[in-house]
Design a protein that fits this description.
single chain, alpha+beta, Creatine Amidinohydrolase, four-stranded antiparallel β-sheet, 15 strands, 28% helix
């Protein structure tokens, strides 16, 4: 069942979204060569808790960490740990926050120092694909209008979209209906209605679309070990477009 949220509920999801954005802004100022992904997690978890939020990922279906930190060929769900970021890496930071009973979810992929032209093209294509998906959100549109918009932008850049993972509804639970693929023909699926809240999240590979999950049961990597990027916003469907709920506030603690 796809839930329609009241304006008050959307306001509460926005409060969680502001913490998501603040944590990602904090990550943007932190990431550098020599930093471990565990250090990023520690700082971001402290930020969320200091501001009245709790990490929505921690303990979710047994996930052991407060954020996801996915490096290079890791698509999503990378578990923070001792891995040290190096010059030329890219790292996707995914943050989910619960505050006052409501959840928001967002992600960005960051360059570490100077990155290759291929990596830069991938990050640009993925961020642009997210923007295209957001641009397709409006009351009366169909769900796969969003999917198609993401796919077109990613593939025009010579990249591929991951087909085994998808975006999702979000609100009182981290994952709600509907599932939002990042590919497909337009004009299909549920009609978008004002008050729906969606987490739109292109996962885009520099190589082929195939992925596999590592032995830890969480970390998803590209099957061909090419680079992958991930950008995500939580949005409310409005009469005239997407109301982005994971927008920035100052991340200082």
């Amino acid at each position: 069942m796809i839930r329609i949220r009241t304006s008050d509920e959307i306001g509460l999801i926005r409060e969680s979204g502001r913490l998501v954005a603040g944590a990602l802004d904090l990550a943007a100022g932190m990431v550098r060569p020599g930093l471990t992904t565990a250090a990023i997690e520690a700082e971001l978890e402290a930020y969320l808790r200091d501001h009245g939020g709790t990490p929505a990922f921690k303990g979710y279906r047994g996930y052991p960490a407060a954020i996801c930190a996915s490096v290079n060929e890791e698509v999503v769900h990378g578990i923070p740990g001792k891995r040290t970021l190096c010059e030329g890496d890219i790292v996707g930071i995914d943050v989910g926050v619960r505050k006052s009973g409501y959840v928001a979810d967002g992600a960005r992929t960051f360059p570490i120092g100077r990155i290759t032209e291929e990596a830069s093209r991938l990050l640009g294509a993925t961020e642009q694909a997210l923007a295209a998906g957001l641009g397709a959100v409006r009351n009366g549109a169909r769900l796969t209008d969003v999917s198609h918009a993401v796919q077109v932008v990613a593939e025009r850049a010579g990249c591929s979209v991951v087909r085994d993972l998808a975006g999702h509804g979000v609100g009182t639970e981290l994952h709600e209906d509907p599932e939002i693929p990042n590919f497909g023909a337009p004009g299909c699926g549920p009609v978008l209605k004002t008050g729906m809240v969606l987490a739109i999240e292109p996962m885009v590979n520099a190589g082929g679309p195939a992925v596999r999950t590592l032995a830890d049961g969480w970390t998803v990597v590209t099957a061909d070990r090419t680079l992958s990027a991930h950008f995500e916003h939580t949005v409310a469907v409005g009469p005239d477009g997407a109301d982005v709920l994971t927008t920035a506030v100052t991340a200082g603690r």
